[in-house]
Each structure stands twice: as structure tokens, then as C-alpha cells.
Amino acid sequence: MRESSLPDLGVGLIGTGFMGRAHALAFHSARTVFDLPVNLRLVALADADAARAEQCARSWGFDRSHAAWQALIDDPAVDLVAITTPNHLHYPMAMAALEAGKAVYCEKPLAVNLAQAREMHSTAKKVGVVTRVGYNYQHNPILGLARQMIQAGELGRIVSFQGEFSEDFMGDPHASWSWRCEHTHAGGALADLGSHLLAMARYLVGDVDSVCADSQTVHPERPALHGSPERRQIAIDDQTYALLRFSNGARGTFSSSWLKHGYKNHLSFEVSGTGGTLSFDQERLNELRYYRADAPGRDGFQRILAGPAQPGYAAFCPAPGHQLGYNELKTLEVHALIQAICGGGNEGPDFAEALEVERLAAAIRVAAREMRWVNVADI
Ligand code: NAD
Q: Which homologous superfamily does the CATH classification assign to the domain defined by 139-324+349-378?
């Protein structure tokens, strides 16, 4: 390998599951796609499964592996700790990394409760390191355009946000229990999927003042393991619905479900204003539908295609309509993180923003439990 004159930035990645692989891919792609201001070194990979950690470190190009995550955090060559473990481990891992003065890139949801989220935010603020949280969908270049159009007033005054995040991976009542089914692990559709949608609502429309909501556990027990006769009781939400009142006066709807058959990654929204509507579905992540109210005789939605005019797209491809994918959004997230660490920008949601997302989710839980409107500021 050729020597680089750039300073090193050492990455330590914890977890080798779905998201561990996505982060590893994104770090590799970021080096290929962007002229980074650092020499990004993949220093260490940790997983509770030592053999898997070792094997993935070898095939994913990390210098070494650890079975104990604390050893990764203690590693002096690690400057940035990426956390892709089940939700209940985010707090201890992020706190240890912050206390060691390392930058933290943590998957969503930030924590299992608001008290943890508050502490993570206040510690990050005190230590003064860069933090980012994996609300990757908002790094989509075409959603950067959507936000820009909303902020420039192209839709007029915003009056509504209708958001839905549905998948169907728990739709089968025989789908087995997992850590995602436990309150203590921040399980449930609201935390798992809804956290992305709440982050998106805030990204596009802004603060939410108050909420009312309804949640339901549709399948109160599931097989302990795939195909096992042993059953486990389940009390988390399979689906949650909410009404939102935004600070700017807009009204909104929110829903998250992991048992809506037919939907695989249906993070979708319609934002409507006095002058038009924007509509998006993550299952068609390279297009935005736009309706203008000021084009009489031209009724109908225009389909805007993703292309190099939208910041971020051209790094991957010079041609419009050739399409980005989920892993490219993750690469853009990593790029924003590295820029922030190097003082070259402040894009992307940090622990302060994630705390607000957690506060909003907590307000929705209280509203559903107590069947009333809840002021988010009271949470
Ligand atoms: P997963 O179960 O596929 O992977 C979890 C990994 O953590 C496994 O490799 C497991 O061995 C490892 N692990 C568990 N305990 C550990 C410990 N004590 N020390 C070290 N490693 C340990 O889970 P996943 O689907 O990758 O989800 C992980 C996180 O990513 C969750 O917080 C989830 O909400 C989030 N997630 C985010 C997105 C997104 O689009 N941003 C998508 C899926 C998951």
C-alpha cells in the first residue's frame, strides 16, 4: 500500500450483523468515492462472536479483531467508534467511547430510554467530540432537494406532513422472537422504524409541539426460536399511529408498522403546502413526485429523477437516472461524518438531534398509553 501524507483517522467498528456490514461497506466506499481529508484506516472490528469478528476483519479489511468491545475502544489507533449492535448496547458502548474522547457514530435508535439519551447527549457535549446517528435516509440527495424546495417556499406555507414507515418482516405470526421484541432493548415498530420517520419529519418540516397516538401489540406471543414450540410473551408495539402538530402550524400523521404485508422499506411521506405537494417512497428512492398548484391546465404530478445536480449524487455517478441505493446513502452518511470530524462541515444528525427524536418518540408512547394529547416539551 502506498504511504499517504494525510493524517490517519482510525475506525473501530462494533458489530458484524446487517448494519456492521453496511458500515464496513460505507467506510470502504467513502475512501473510493470521495477525496477524503484523512487517511481512513480500518483499524479494528469487534463482535461478541470472536470467530466471526476475526473472519469478518480479514475479509472486510480491518487490521485486527476483538471479542471484547472495550478493547476496541481502548485501542489508541481507534479515533472513531462505530456502533452497530442491538439497541441496549448503544448506551454503554457510546458512553465508554465518549469518555475515551473518541468520535461516535451510533446506529438508531440512540438509546433504550430518554434518560440514557440525555446522558449520552450531555456527555458528548461536555467531551466536545463529533457524534452522528444512523438516520441514513435523510442523506438521500433527492431528499436534500426536497428539503431545499420546502425551505425555499416552493410548496408555499407547509400545511401537512403525512408519514408512514411500514415493513412486513414481522407480519408472519410465526416469525420468531428477537431482541427487537423487548422493551429493554428499545424494541417495537416505533423505535425500530418510527425513529427514522420522526427524524425525517423533523428534517423536512421541523419541531413537533404536541402529539396524540395509539399503539398495538398484534401478536402477543411468538416462537422463542424459528420453528420452536416454545413461546415467548411480547409486549412491544407491532404498529403505532400518531397525529402531530408541528411548531410551524402544520398538521401531520405518523405511522410505523412492521407487519404491513407487501411493504419492504416503505418510508414514505407527502408534504403539502399552500402551493404544492411533494411525495416520496423509499422503495423508489431515486424519485420525488412534485405537484404545483400554479400550473392550471397542467394538472398532474411531475416525476423528478435523482441526478448529479443534487449534491452527493455525482460522487457516485455522472449520469442522471442511473440511481443510487441504500448503501450509497450510508456512504454519504460516513462522508458527512468525516467532514464534520475534520472541521469541514456540520451536516447530519448528531446526539443533540437524536435526543429530540427520542423525546418525540417518548411523547408518542405517553400519548398512546394515556390516550391523550401530549406536549413534547413536557417530556
Ligand atoms: P444484527 O443482530 O444483525 O447485528 C448485531 C451485531 O451485534 C451482531 O454481529 C452481534 O454479534 C453483535 N453483538 C451483539 N452483542 C454484542 C456485544 N456485546 N459485543 C460486540 N458485538 C455484539 O442487528 P442489526 O440489524 O445489524 O442492528 C444493529 C443496530 O443497527 C440496531 O441498533 C438497529 O436498530 C440498527 N439498524 C439500523 C438500520 C438503518 O437503516 N440505519 C437498519 C437495520 C438496523
A: Dihydrodipicolinate Reductase; domain 2 (3.30.360.10)
**Residue ranges of the domains in the chain?**
8-136, 139-324+349-378
Counting ligand 1 atoms within 8 A of each CB, the residue from 14, 88, 107 with the most, and so the one to mutate, is 107
Establish whether residue 136 lines the binding site of ligand 1, counting it when its CB lies within 6 angstroms of any ligand atom: yes
Asked if the 8-136 domain carries CATH number 3.40.50.720, the reply is yes
Which whole-number Å values give the CA distances from 84 to 205, 214, 250, in the listed order?
28, 29, 34
* pTM, full prediction: 0.97
Closest CA to 331 of 352, 317, 321: 317
pLDDT tens per residue, range 225-247: 988 899 999 999 999 999 999 99
What is the per-residue pLDDT for 3?
63
Could you tell me if the CB of 15 is within 6 A of ligand 1?
A: yes
% of the chain residues with pLDDT over 90? 95
pLDDT mean over 248-271? 98
- Phi, psi torsion values for 269, nearest 5 degrees: -155, 160
Q: Which of 45, 54, 85, 195 to mutate to test the pocket of ligand 1 (most atoms within 8 A of CB)?
A: 85
